[in-house]
Design goal:
Structural class: alpha/beta
Shape: globular
Length: 922
């Protein structure tokens, strides 16, 4: 007999060990008959080696595990390939902090080789945390194939790709603007930049026109916006939130159609402090409606200005060093007093000088977004520096075509728009980072600055001999590659490329990729580019399934500062992995998943419901029977549940195949809770307790066997979503009846024939369910005491009369009825104190007068209807206010609309109940 409850804390480690020991995580052996459709592969988005399991990981890996377990049970050779990312900047930061905490010297004093050794030591000790946590979630990855983006095989693949792309002219070195982190002294990707809203200001500076130039500037306007008064000016006003960058200004831009400044295009201003002559240029970037309409241009310190500078041929002058300090290295006209000054100190000094010299015209306070390093927390500086780049524009074209032609599809399809938009407007990809932890760039420099790109230093030396008569000292590039570069090779490098391996032959291209929308450009698009380039035009995956973002129950982004973070490990400790997994699946159909602990607790109750159903079945001697054939069952309820199970199997299978995990979980929930537990087992009770006659015993035996068989099939269907509790039930229920062949995880997915759906049984039990549901609804609406045995008078079609009589005791029990009488319509009309209701074409009357206080009940209903009216009026007033709809957050407006719909539905339900009371015969 099953224990009273399932104890996940004790069962989960034991069950996971059984799975690992079974070898089922690895792909099954190849068969001579296998074709491409017999393999299913998926690569895990590699979490950072520094990371711990967060709720986003729980969602993403639950969905992947559902796919892997489902296709494994479908008989496919499944490879779910796991691994972790070396996470350059994050890992380097963790180890530097560890060294500091232990009182060691810093990495620069330690030296590169010794520091890298320390990082590898840390990885060996602490780098497996998230992998262990993924196991707790139930992830059925093939851990024997686990990869690391810095392991020896992937390192070789990275070097080969870099060298080949350089030969193809698709990797090059250039001086361009990057996101520069002055704390970590490195370029960082856009994904590592966090925009924070901060208090700031627009400082309005007057730049004096050079060569005695003046112009007429409008100062007054009529109602139509036409200038009516002008003043003569010998200056032009610009505004900036970063006064320190003005030391690097090389132009002022105005819109080409701006009448105020048309005559100034081609003229010059004299930059304060430096005395530098800089031109006034025309460019669409300048917005005539903002500020003065004129914009200072600093190409070396602003991404938009860099574009203007390129179009206008302006010089790009660096006025900061790698630490964010002012430097005159490129700008000798910057006074010596600013040399070495921190950028924010320089800001204060420049504003003070502007005020003193009279060219500060206004300080306009504002709150604005400022980029910060997500790891360092410091303000990011757009900075001009020499870096390595990939010609992403060229590489993007095949990646665009592959999705346009359907070689790779996105689910949901709407995410293709994000993919297309980014690739069609793609910029060169900066792939070098000024770090020590990572794939060191395979480029060496000769004494005269020549660059030799090669997979090994030996190959680089051979190249150098073409420029020198003898061997010379070569120095390898100090930089490492962007972490996303190695991640872009993940689908094929993890399978052994550049070697022609069996895994590549069997599992590439991969079947699915499950990932988040925020890395469509950083990862998905780059994997497409690299895969198509190096794998003979084959896409790396056939389908990309985009999962949503998990938020708190109010729709707010989770953050430690808000205190609204749900830790999946705490949930697993307290409630088990299965409820978390089921919640992730059933909520996965929206872009923003609103999650609360209460939701997860609710789905723990779902697991408990299944456990109790299995226990009830055991207590009623429902056990598996050797050779039982569900096609032969005779009892109506058994033919009905067979059909309902068949329909559920279709729904679950179709949903998982389509990547609609919410639909799959919803179908499972409805079948297990609403159909099997609430109806079938209730309908089976009279059979289990039936007469000990020959027919009664035959019905019991069939129903017991059918119950056990249905539970077995249900466990198979539920297993991909809730693997632990289903595996435990499979083992425990297998102790009775024929011996099990092995673990549930290794079982075959049920594919049930269409003939299992019995239309007659479906109609018969469907009518019974509708009847009981209608009676329960009337009882609930009119507040009938739960213990009241209410008489029922029923007029039904002949076939339903038969159902009523055949299931008399069941209907009595389920609807809590007294006597049930089959009546004519005339007899129904004469039932005193009766409340009518309709079931399809049939009519029933419940005699309630003796069980409820009609006056009190009418007053209650009228009061609750009035309360709904008040709610509806209040919400309608809000939604009818254009200012509220325009200014309130979208989720707030949607919440109010949902509240309105709920109130209107509640009111309609109560009005129907009131109408029933009014229709009651005295």
């Amino acid at each position: 007999m099953l224990e009273k409850t399932f104890e996940p804390k004790a069962a989960e480690p034991r069950i996971y060990a059984q799975w690992e020991d079974s070898g089922l995580f690895a792909p099954r052996a190849a068969k001579p008959t296998d074709g491409a459709s017999d393999a299913y592969s998926i690569v895990i988005p590699p979490p950072n080696v520094t990371g711990s399991l967060h709720i986003g990981h729980a969602l993403n890996n639950t969905l992947q595990d559902i796919l892997a377990r489902y296709h494994r049970m479908k008989g496919k050779a499944v490879l779910w390939l796991p691994g972790t990312d070396h996470a350059g900047i994050a890992t380097q930061m963790v180890v530097e902090r560890k060294l500091a905490a232990e009182g060691n010297i810093g990495r620069r004093d330690l030296g590169r080789d010794a520091f890298i050794e320390k990082v590898w030591e840390w990885k060996a000790e602490s780098g497996g945390t998230i992998v262990r946590q993924l196991r707790r979630l139930g992830s059925s990855c093939d851990w024997s194939r686990e990869r690391f983006t810095l392991d020896e095989g992937l390192n070789a693949a990275v070097r080969k790709v870099f060298v080949q792309l350089h030969k193809d002219g698709l990797i090059y070195r250039d001086k361009r603007l990057v996101n520069w982190d002055p704390h970590f002294q490195t370029a960082i990707s856009d994904l590592e930049v966090e925009q924070k809203e901060v208090d700031g200001a627009y400082w309005h500076f007057a730049y004096r026109l050079s060569d005695g130039v003046t112009y007429q500037h409008p100062v007054a306007f009529d109602e139509d916006g036409k200038a009516t008064e002008f003043e003569t000016r010998d200056f032009i006003v610009v505004a900036t939130t970063r006064p320190e960058t003005m030391l690097g200004d090389t132009g002022v831009a105005v819109h080409p159609e701006d009448e105020r400044y048309k005559g100034l295009v081609g003229k010059f201003v004299t930059l304060p402090i430096t005395g530098r002559r800089i031109p006034i240029v025309a460019d669409d970037y300048a917005d005539p409606t903002k500020g003065s309409g004129a914009v200072k241009i600093t190409p070396a310190h602003d991404f938009n200005d860099f574009g203007v500078g390129k179009r206008a041929g302006l010089e790009a002058l660096n006025v900061m060093d790698a630490f964010g300090r002012i430097t005159a290295a490129d700008t000798p006209d910057v006074p010596a007093e600013y040399e070495g000054m921190d950028r924010f100190a320089a800001r204060k000094a420049i504003v003070a000088r502007a005020e003193e010299e009279g060219w500060l015209r206004e300080i306009e306070k504002t709150r604005h977004m400022v980029p910060h390093g997500d790891r360092s927390g410091v303000v990011i500086e757009p900075w001009m520096t020499d870096q390595w780049y990939v010609d992403a524009k060229v590489m993007a074209q095949p990646a665009l075509k592959a999705v346009e032609d359907g070689a790779t599809v996105f689910e949901p399809k709407s995410y293709e728009k994000i993919y297309f938009e980014w690739l069609r407007n793609i910029e060169p990809w900066c792939i070098s980072r000024q770090l020590w932890w990572g794939h060191r760039i395979p480029a060496w420099y000769g004494p005269n600055g020549e660059i030799y790109v090669a997979e090994t230093e030996e190959d680089a030396r051979e190249q150098a001999l073409s420029d020198y008569d003898s061997e010379v000292v070569l120095t390898q590039d100090e930089d490492v590659l962007d972490t996303w570069f190695s991640s872009a090779l993940w689908p094929f490098s993890t399978m052994g490329w550049p070697e022609k391996t069996e895994d590549l032959e069997r599992f590439y291209p991969t079947s699915d990729l499950v990932t988040a929308a925020d890395i469509i450009f950083f990862w998905v698009a780059r994997m497409m580019m690299m895969g198509l380039h190096f794998m003979d035009g084959e896409v790396p995956f056939k389908r990309v399934i985009i999962n949503g973002l998990v938020r708190d129950e109010k729709g707010q982004k989770m953050s430690k500062s808000k205190g609204n973070v749900i830790d999946p490990l705490n949930i697993i400790d307290e409630l088990g992995a299965d409820p978390l997994r089921f919640t992730m699946a059933i909520l996965s159909g929206t872009r923003d998943i609103k999650l609360s602990k209460q939701r997860i607790e609710g789905y723990r109750n779902f697991g408990t419901k299944l456990w109790n159903a299995a226990r009830f079945s055991q207590m009623n001697e429902a056990r598996r029977v050797e050779g039982f054939d569900p096609a032969t069952v005779q009892q109506t309820i058994n033919r009905w549940i067979r059909g309902e199970l068949t329909k559920a199997e279709r729904q679950v299978s179709d949903a998982i195949e389509g990547g609609r995990f919410d639909d799959a979980a919803g179908a499972l929930y409805r079948f297990i809770w609403n159909v099997f537990c609430d109806w079938y087992l209730e309908l089976a009770k009279p059979v289990f307790n039936g007469p000990e006659t020959e027919d009664g015993e035959a019905a019991k035996a069939e129903t017991r066997a059918m119950t056990a068989w249905t539970i077995d099939q249900t466990l198979k269907l539920l297993h991909p979503v809730m693997p632990y509790i289903t595996e435990e039930l499979w083992a425990e229920l297998g102790k009775e009846g024929p011996a099990r062949d092995g673990l549930l995880m290794g079982e075959t997915w049920p594919v049930l024939p269409d003939a299992f759906v019995d239309v007659d049984a479906e109609a018969e039990i469907g009518w019974l369910v509708d009847l009981v549901t209608a009676i329960r609804q009337v009882r609930a609406e009119l507040n009938v005491p739960p213990g009241a045995k209410v008489p029922l008078f029923m007029h039904a079609e002949q076939k339903n009369d038969r159902v009523l009589l055949e299931h008399y005791l069941t209907i009595q029990h389920l609807a809590r009825l007294g006597a049930i009488e089959v009546s004519s319509l005339e007899e129904l009309s004469r039932v005193s104190g009766g409340v009518p209701f309709v079931v399809g074409e049939d009519t029933g009357v419940l005699r309630l007068a003796n069980f409820i206080d009609l006056t009190a009940e009418r007053a209650r209903l009228e009061k609750e209807i009035a309360a709904f009216d008040a709610d509806i009026g209040h919400v309608n007033k809000k939604l009818g206010n254009p200012n509220f709809v325009a200014r309130a957050a979208a989720e707030v407006v949607e919440e109010q609309r949902a509240k309105l719909a709920e109130a209107e539905e509640g009111k309609a339900r109560l009005q129907a109940a009131l109408a029933r009371l009014d229709a009651m015969k005295g």
